[in-house]
Amino acid sequence: MDTRSSFFSICMLWISVCVGLHSGESVISVSGDLGSTAVLPCELKSVGTETLYISWIIKSETVFEREDSETYQGEGYEGRVDVPEEELRKRNCSLVLNNLTLTDAGVYTSIQTVRRSKRSVTIERIEISRVSLSVREKPPEEKSDEVSSPTGDAGMKCPQPMILVLSLISCVFFQFVFKDP
């Protein structure tokens, strides 16, 4: 393999990895203090006339489900979790988790179930977001009822699309500059 094709292969691999990482779902990190409230962010891509059905899971265990006004709260989460119906109608499917415990820490996944019916009923489950929740122990004198918010993206970062385009142009340019005679 010559230098030119080797360089081009490395460029194409770099761009493929970056595009793959950039397009993949990332995990959002949220942290909260023991006993406080955390909001695990989630936004629906679209809300149609179909029945709104959202669920949040952790390790394949259901934490919360809402289908219009009907709700289910998983074991250990009773009375502590909600996705308010009025917020859900505005495309906000964020999970509100009150009175955080140390066992609440983990990666939560929100899923929208869409039922479509034309000639036959089809059900599609769409993963919306993944949120990693960490719970900090605070000394009793420092406890507060503040609501925590996302602290950023815990996933791997990749260059912005413009940098990817410039990288591709550079790769093509170098391929022609170092072209074998």
Automatic annotation (TrEMBL):
Task: List the record's Gene Ontology CC terms alphabetically.
Answer: external side of plasma membrane
Residues in Ig-like domain copies: 35-122
InterPro entries for the chain: Ig-like_dom, Ig-like_dom_sf, Ig-like_fold, Ig_V-set, T-cell_Activation_Regulation
Q: Which Gene3D superfamilies match?
A: Immunoglobulins (2.60.40.10)
Where composition is biased (Basic and acidic residues), the residues are 135-146
Signal sequence extent: 1-24
- Give the start-end ranges of region Disordered: 134-154
Nuclease keyword on record: no
Superkingdom classification of source: Eukaryota
Cell membrane among the record's keywords? Answer: yes
Q: What is the name attached to this protein's record?
A: Ig-like domain-containing protein
**Organism of provenance:** Silurus asotus
Its taxonomic placement starts with: Eukaryota, Metazoa, Chordata, Craniata, Vertebrata
